[in-house]
Predict the 3D structure of the following.
Amino acid sequence: DADVTQTPRNRITKTGKRIMLECSQTKGHDRMYWYRQDPGLGLRLIYYSFDVKDINKGEISDGYSVSRQAQAKFSLSLESAIPNQTALYFCATSDHRTAQETQYFGPGTRLLVL
Amino acid sequence: RKEVEQDPGPFNVPEGATVAFNCTYSNSASQSFFWYRQDCRKEPKLLMSVYSSGNEDGRFTAQLNRASQYISLLIRDSKLSDSATYLCVVNRGGSYIPTFGRGTSLIVHP
């Protein structure tokens, strides 16, 4: 069973629509992250959360919002989707108690905004 | 200067070859370093952490050079299954916010 899951795995939407991407984890990690990946640009951090009451902007947070509903759940919303938000979105988790704080990724959500 | 820089490649090598990638980072306070592997359109997965004294895992060797601010990954006896993109990851000092390089593409051919 996957430790980090993302729903939906694929999504096509239209400009102006509000959509939500969801991430759940069973790893018991306290930290969660949302990234987007575009060809040639690598992974860029959108938002991150170090615990349920902590939300922080990453390098490209404009046009996005997040909610940390529980330690195991971290959702990403696009309030009004636009075509340049077409990308591959990854959720990741990490545990701050580990010496080398590695990240574990979900399988990704492919989003197409028309 | 970008925080983490990698040569995008592709590195096109025959099976059995030895290949090395470098990754430079700009923040001298960086504390943790990793190599991740990403197969086409799939999630990145940890390949190995990089320790100050260097470390080896089978055919893979990682090195850290703090003075020159780079890390390296050496792959010996390349296999077809090593074909992937290799991502360098650096955690900013103190906050453990990871920064990813754009990745180096490796193609191993028969």
Q: What stands out?
A: Residues 37 and 43 of chain B are 9 Å apart (CA to CA). Chain B touches chain A through 21 residues (CB under 8 Å). The mean pLDDT of chain B is 92.
